[in-house]
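Async update (no meeting this week)

Hi team, since we skipped the sync, here's where things stand on the single-chain job. The sequence we agreed to prioritize is pasted below, unchanged from the tracker. I ran it this morning and attached the output directly underneath so nobody has to dig for it. Comments welcome in thread, and please keep replies under the output.
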Amino acid sequence: MAAKNNNKRLYLILARIIVVVAIVAALVFSSKFSGFVHLRGLVFVLAGSATLALASFSFPEIGAAFRHAAGAPAEGEDVRKSLAFWEAAARNAWMTGVLGTILNFIVALCTLSGGIVDVATRMAMSFLTTIYGMVLAVVCAVPAWKLGEVLRFKPAGIASETAAKSTAADAGSIRFENVIGYLLFLVIVSWMVFQPVLGVAHSNFSPFDWIIHWPSLLIVLGGTIALVLFVGGAGAGRMLAPAFAITGLIGSLAGFIQTLLGIAGRVISTVSAGITFVIASCFVAMLGMMLAGAPWEDRLVKTGRMDKPSALSRAAVYVFPLLALIFLVVALILVITPIHQ
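Output:
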């Protein structure tokens, strides 16, 4: 009887997914919404979110999370781990969407042609990946909400027992599939950036000009290391994501100061350097949070050393990407606004 009920719940979930997919497909592929189709961005969001999940969780944990989301019975500790997975999946989708926008923005700057109209069109299209990431984040948040309600009715004290058994080495340990997840994510990022500019005869910039910008690297990476060392102890790992967000914000503001000084002096090279500073700072900070800060906290949560990510960490992974989008909008306006010398 229980198996029959589980199959019924699974069929209902699949039916809902099919209905949602059908509605979204009808909107996207209709003539009115055809401009919202960006296949490369969609592939990046889906593949990037999947590889980031693999970087933080093992295959058995991922499989259990999907089974529990489908309604399979589980004990409190298993539900807690699955809840951590779906919360991380929603966060990863949101951050991957914003990172995809930054990468598309870089590609647009490296392959511009056709004047201001082409500039505005290419850069505006780069924001589609954020929409895809937001939609996927909502989809992943639904199982998290559902499992959160289930966890309320499970016996208390399970998480504390797990925390007592776990060690710092458990939180920092990396499995084989985690390494594969990291490598695949870096491959996807490289494909997203470098494949579109290969074979372009006349490129305005190289992607390396935006990714490896030494002032941004010094501020974001150097500042993050300094903050983590200053905190020290058990809180050092928990400070990774907020530290990347703080230093990324500092680097972005420094870039805007440089940009405004260039505009005031009507020096185009200074304006260009300032915009590079802003975009590179956002990129490095986002990449650091996604590859170091967020996975570390995921391991702390799933091993029971933390009940949930800290409020400061959640603010970092959700607010800083939003600020990065605002910075890109400002950068877009500055790029398409002519400077009269």
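Quick observations from my side:
Residues 55 and 181 are 4 Å apart (CA to CA).
The chain has a mean pLDDT of 78.
Reply here if anything looks off.
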